[in-house]
Amino acid sequence: MGRLVGLSLMGIALALLGERFLALRNRLKASREVESADLPNCRLIKGIEAGSEDIDILPNGLAFFSVGLKFPGLHSFAPDKPGGILMMDLKEEKLRALELRISRGFNLATFNPHGISTFIDHDDTVYLFVVNHPEFKNTVEIFKFEEEENSLVHLKTIRHELLPSVNDITAVGPAHFYATNDHYFSDPFLKYLETYLNLRWSNVVYYSPNEVKVVAEGFDTANGISISPDNKYIYVADALAHEIHVLEKHPDMNLTQMKKVLKLDTLVDNLSIDPSSGDIWAGCQPNGQKLFVYDPNNPPSSEVLRIQNILSEKPTVTTVYANNGSVLQGSSVASVYDRKLLIGTLYHRALYCEL
């Protein structure tokens, strides 16, 4: 009788593991292929060879690139080179990406930048917020941008128990931000288990010098985060759920989940907002399995979506760019400025297109 019970329990456990495995493949869109829908006026950006995971553009056309992200088990084309922040002036005729110098005292050897966000204060000071993973830990770095010197002055390193697995960030003050935790745990094995079991413990945190709190939770994998031009709404990409959530922001900085959840057929990564129209531009990965199990003969594809009228009954979703990996592998972000489009990737190249 004891053996029979044991075999029954083993059978149930194996069935559960099998069901979770199939569910994970579906969440990764492991069988999805895309047909290329390239834009006519595009070129790869020289100097970006090992990823540009996030991009943020200032109102004056200066674009910041977060480059060189590394994670355990994630492919890298430059595994021994530290990450950095590059800048490009989109108003120049001859576009070039320059690496910004960072002030002394900051540990450049372990710099591993992920999501980024800018904030312009009332005195026109530009702050750059950078999610950093030094030695695969989690910090948020705050820099002041010195335009004349093409440099970043490091101001502060933030660590907090409510920021165990930070992915992206959107700044709302000189030391204030919302951030996504793509996992509840920081330990790599527990992260994998959390993803495999689809625990949906991912969340959004609000940070200020006076208060740190969880303001939204229940996500599969909270990823990109951005704020509407009128500062009324926070947009959150849930990558493995293939969704974009609209959250209402309140004066106390709490967030309320609205009924609006846009369901898509792709893994949504970073979100950028066109300040002139309010349109959301999303860098997406059509097939997550190809992204995490890298095969140079069958590379991950890229996809850029434009979402118009997100608050309406029927938002318009347009595929602006798609590539099967022959040009661009594993897109993670798309940002626009004056009919110019920048597309970054998790660990590959970056693309400049004229719309």
Automatic annotation (TrEMBL):
Membrane topology per record: Peripheral membrane protein
S-S bridge residues: 42-353
Keywords from the named record: Calcium, Disulfide bond, Glycoprotein, Hydrolase, Membrane, Metal-binding, Signal
Enzyme superclass (EC): hydrolase
SUPFAM superfamilies: Calcium-dependent phosphotriesterase (SSF63829)
EC number(s) reported in the record: 3.1.1.2
One biological process term in Gene Ontology: response to toxic substance
Pfam families xrefs: Arylesterase
Active-site feature positions: 114 (proton acceptor)
Name the UniProt record assigns to this protein: Paraoxonase
